[in-house]
Amino acid sequence: MKLSNLNLAARINLFLGIVLLFGFFILTSVILKIAYDSSLKKGEDYARLTAKNYGNEISSKFNIPKENLDQLKREIMLLSEQQVISREQTNQMLIDYLSNNKDVLDVYMTWEPEAFDGKDK
């Protein structure tokens, strides 16, 4: 069947059908692209928010023992400056700190030679 054999109404209907079909495909493509972009943005936002929440949770787990350790350091330094603490007492304070903070694996102190109590050999 040739296109030239169709009457005018059939040609118009065929043309409109092709235009509508083409329009439908374009509209569907645009809607899918918008949905994809929106989903991608929402997924990235969710991932960012989740990572931030986990980061805050981890930071809070580290901050409390760190603050306690900083306080312990200040106490030991003050007592050392006043020369009222021995090495054994300092070691016991560190051991107590470890037993009270289960999230901390290890703790140690280093001093310059003769700086702690002047009893280095």
UniProtKB/TrEMBL annotation:
Keywords: Membrane, Transmembrane, Transmembrane helix. The chain crosses the membrane at residues 12-32. The keyword Membrane applies. Gene3D superfamilies: PAS domain. It comes from the Bacteria. This is Methyl-accepting chemotaxis protein. It comes from Paenibacillus agricola. The lineage of its organism: Bacteria, Bacillati, Bacillota, Bacilli, Bacillales.
